[in-house]
Write a structure and sequence with these properties.
Layout (H helix, E strand, L loop, with lengths): L1 H18 L4 H16 L5 H14 L8 H22 L12 H23 L7 H25 L1
Helix pairs in contact: 1-2, 1-3, 1-4, 2-3, 3-4, 4-5
Length: 156
């Protein structure tokens, strides 16, 4: 069942690329990578699917914040979560829905943060960024880096 979820989520990413006007050969290669990710979820195939999607959308001439990108971010994250679970479980295993509760809550919380960040980015003027906003962004990035370092140091 999880492999089917990988195919469906990866197919959604492929559909986003096709809707965004990606070249048909690229869409076919992307679909093949999705099939490979479903067959071998513990391989590098899921990462290649996500990287190919991100690269294709980033190289587009369209604005960076658009519905297709937000959908692709959510689907890429969901692909990551589903392939991680599928990689851990044997092919013929059964999963009780309650076991997916914690990953689902984590997925939803991350997506809420991403959508919030995208909303804030959408409010920033596209021409020149004000100096206080640049300083705030630098301070936020520094705080994230310091917090990550502290978390990693406390765990290991």
């Amino acid at each position: 069942m999880l492999r089917l979820a990988v195919v469906l989520v990866g197919g959604g990413l492929t559909a986003v690329l096709a809707a965004e006007g990606a070249e048909p050969p690229f869409v076919l290669v992307h679909a093949a990578l999705v099939g490979l990710a479903a067959a071998l979820p513990a391989s590098a195939a899921p990462v290649l699917v996500i990287a190919a999607t991100a690269t294709a959308l980033a190289l587009s001439d369209a604005p960076a914040i658009r519905p297709a990108v937000l959908v692709a971010v959510a689907l890429a994250h969901l692909l990551h979560v589903v392939t991680a679970v599928a990689a851990l479980l044997p092919l013929d295993s059964r999963v009780h829905p309650a076991a997916l509760r914690v990953p689902a809550i984590r997925f939803a919380s991350v997506q809420l943060c991403v959508l919030g960040a995208a909303g804030l980015i959408g409010l920033v003027p596209q021409d020149r960024v004000a100096v206080p906003l640049e300083v705030l962004g630098l301070a936020a990035a520094t705080a994230l880096a310091a917090g990550s370092a502290l978390l990693l140091r406390s765990r290991g």
